[in-house]
Design brief:
The structure is a homodimer. Chain A is of the alpha/beta class. Chain A contains 11 helices and 11 strands. The structure holds a DNA duplex.
Chain lengths: 338, 338
DNA sequence: TCTTTATCTTGTTTACTAAACAAATTTCGA
DNA sequence: TCGAAATTTGTTTAGTAAACAAGATAAAGA
């Protein structure tokens, strides 16, 4: 008759309710009155009840957040900081843990098995360096995935994106409306699908005015260079003819470019206007404050988590893109109409 | 003691279950065994039970489907037929009725009150003729809405779209890859946001090759003309120089254009290649079969209904675009590489 | 001694109920 | 003959008993 430990049945009889009721209280299911819940909790404390086996799914469900190595310092920083916060807070609301998993571009053959062991799905914050193959591997294992700010051409995956195309269109349209016609663009590496979409949006806006970016005003980006737009802008400024406006594909690129412009002794926006895309926190503190297009990064994160949850629950059947609206933020770096 | 009618309590005692169980059977709630359900149903039939008052929400929830007058014949026809089927079938799955409501562009001051009376939300299958004002009115009344294949610039509404931009890009890229450089485009009226997105996609693909559509090869569409692309194509063929390929902004436009090309005594695709967007059912039966980009119209409908349902349920909080993937369908109207 | 099988715990789920509640509807006294 | 009170009817909340699943433990067989 010497019981090893108190169990749910003990609690139930001590509190004068059914085992089911005790179970419902512990698992915070609806259909229990506050008074009963309080009674049960106090009995649980008195009898010092511990759930016997840390049972199967008594530990929360978890989702993986796959992110590229170099973005890790960025967590508290520019772009991905906000989306990670979004993923995390929505996961919490849904009662899930987020396990962070880092992809190292130098280490070949990323160990997926470690990740997928105890995870219900993964959010892939693709930076372009996570090869498509890794993503394909995951889906081959029937692991639900959601991509953030990237898609894989020729494959149909659920993803959530900023409206990159429209963002490119909006900033270009703004600069065009200000009267500029000699416009340069600082593009990003083509492995980032979000950045190529932005560029396409810029091109479409130009084309509507029957304009093309001159090839010499679209320099290729330096891969791996710390100050993104700096070298590209220098290349442009070394040419005979200067543009009157520059579009930077991201705020980070704009920072580099503004450095190069200032070093050349030119004024922003009087000599060269500059606009970009992202609306990272620092953009408003730059000198002059940057005119840019807001991409709702936090919302990107919560939407991704919601979408992943729906896929796990079997609600979302067809894969589609969720695209959050972008918004032009006019500050001072583009000046006013000429 | 003479009861006027049998009620739930009678059924319950006759079937030997609780009133709650009877209620659950009638409302098809989970948690009833098939055997009990059958027993209750047979008692209901024997005692000829009719629910007393056709009670409040015993009639299903309904959603409105707002569609433009001229699209009505199209229900069994080209584009909107499939999306309406999608909306309807998903609504049925969710236990909702769809009430169809027609917008007549000639009759000013559309009577919303009639529609919103007993409807939980509205799917707006916007054709461009439904003015933004009508949609704004609806949201001012706190009526949840979802737009299909359109968005309103400067406003943030939940909507579901085909990937029109990518579709335009894909068909143009295909034609470019085939070696064409002299390309014309038959655009649509600018009031249709989906058609302007397609055109922008085309322009972006061209711009990537440092190409622009010559203005004379981008004729304005005839509004109201029955055969969409016919006149536009004739205008192009009347010029001195002919393009080697034409992009039609929709399958319907392609049909008209192909007529004009053939009347001019030219062969498709040998003299002029033609590609378009939609992949309507007829496109595969055309002569030659049309190379086009598939827009998943049925899925558009079910996604719209799902989204509306979530908004009604208060699950979706931030408005965003749901974009379904498009797919290039290569048939014969573009021929092979030149 | 080692493995296999049966039994027992413990937690979880299903199918169902009593009683409280809310909204119409009827009754009834002034 | 009008309005408050009582009643009917459907609906919701807060539970329960019993079946079920799966790991732990004990018992039996090779």
């Amino acid at each position: 008759m010497s019981k090893s430990k108190t169990n749910m049945r003990d609690i139930a009889s001590a509190a004068g309710v059914s085992v089911t009721a005790v179970w419902m209280v512990i698992h915070e299911k609806p259909g229990i009155s506050p008074s009963t819940a309080e009674k049960v909790w106090s009995v649980i404390n008195n009898l010092d009840y511990k759930p016997r086996k840390s049972n199967s799914n008594s530990q929360m469900d978890a989702v993986g957040l796959l992110i590229e190595q170099s973005s890790i310092p960025a967590i508290s920083d520019v772009f991905y900081g906000d989306v990670i916060r979004g993923v995390q807070s929505e996961a919490e609301r849904l009662g899930m843990r987020v396990v962070l998993s880092v992809f190292d571009r130098n280490k070949r053959g990323f160990d997926l098995n470690g990740l997928i062991q105890d995870v219900r799905g993964v959010v892939v914050a693709n930076d372009g360096d996570l090869p498509a193959q890794t993503v394909l591997q995951l889906t081959a294992l029937d692991m639900p995935i959601v991509l953030i700010e990237s898609y894989i051409a020729g494959h149909v995956f659920p993803c959530v994106l900023g409206d990159n195309f429209m963002a490119g269109y909006q900033i270009t349209r703004h600069i065009l409306n200000l009267g500029h016609r000699d416009i340069a663009v600082l593009k990003g590496p083509s492995k980032y699908s979000s950045l190529v979409d932005r560029l396409r949006g810029c091109m479409a806006a130009m084309a509507e005015e029957h304009l093309l970016f001159p090839p010499e005003w679209m320099p290729e980006p330096m891969s791996g260079h710390p100050l993104k737009g700096y070298v590209q802008m220098q290349e442009i400024l070394a040419l005979d003819r200067h543009p009157t406006a520059v579009i930077a594909i991201s705020d980070k690129t704009a920072i580099g470019a503004m450095g190069a412009i200032r070093e050349a002794g030119l004024r922003i926006p009087d000599d060269i206007a500059i606009g970009s895309i992202d609306n990272t926190r620092e953009s408003q503190f730059m000198r002059p404050p940057l005119t840019t297009v807001h991409i709702p990064k936090y919302e990107l994160g919560v939407l991704a988590m919601q979408k992943l949850n729906r896929i796990i629950m079997g609600e979302d059947t067809t894969a589609f893109k969720s695209v959050v609206y972008s918004e032009l933020i006019v500050r001072e770096s583009c000046g006013s109409a000429r």
